[in-house]
Amino acid sequence: MPGKRARRHFSQLSEFVRGLIIGIKIAGWSTRRIAGQVDHSECAVRNCWEQWTREGTHARKIGSGATRKTMRREDRRIVRQALVNPTGTRSTIRADVGVAIVPQTISRHLAEANLKSKRPFHALPLTLENRQLRLQWCQARSMWNVTDWQKVVFSDESRFVLGTDDNRVRVWRHRV
């Protein structure tokens, strides 16, 4: 929508922003004006002010949010399993840890540990000698015509996948 500023939805208000909202509201600003100033929704500003008038505090409630399904020890075990078996899938990691959690939880814990699922290397990087040999091969065939090139088969062509799974093995690695 043109003319509308993008606001950060579904984000928690920091303690500083909560205090700022209370101070500005006490100074007499409207909810809409405060929401524009702190770059949050009017609903978030209204909820913060209602909590202040109802409870006399702007602090977040302890224990708010979703309950944890894993303990710190299990979180460390998830990361360790991914490092020990880098080709392991989220379902095998879940089975090894032995906790009933969804695959997104495993991905989140691995992302917190700076691990990401990537495809493994197909080949080692080329050495200077290999590059020179490839260049010589290309230069020797620079004058070929279409019929000569039709006899050549290239093995490093791109793959196109129309489905959701490319059936490639993925590896858990640290982000660079």
From TrEMBL:
Leader sequence segment: none
One annotated GO molecular function: DNA binding
Main localisation: nucleus
Name of protein: Transposable element Tc1 transposase
Gene: tc1a_547
A Pfam cross-reference name: HTH_Tnp_Tc3_2
Gene Ontology CC annotation, any one: nucleus
Superkingdom of origin organism: Eukaryota
Residues covered by the Transposase Tc1-like domain: 75-140
Lineage summary: Eukaryota, Metazoa, Ecdysozoa, Arthropoda, Chelicerata
Location within or outside the cell: Nucleus
Single GO biological process annotation from the record: DNA integration
